[in-house]
Amino acid sequence: MAEEVEAGGAEEEVFYASKTGLDALEEKLKKEVALTENDLKCFAYPGDGDDESILVPIDLSVIDASFDEDEELVDMDMRLELPTMIEKLGVKGAAQALIDARKKYEANVGKEDPEERLKSMTVKEWKDVMADDGEEDEDGEEEDDDEDDEEEETKEPTPKKAKTT
Question: Whose CA is closest to 79, among 125, 122, 47, 123?
Answer without folding.
Answer: 47
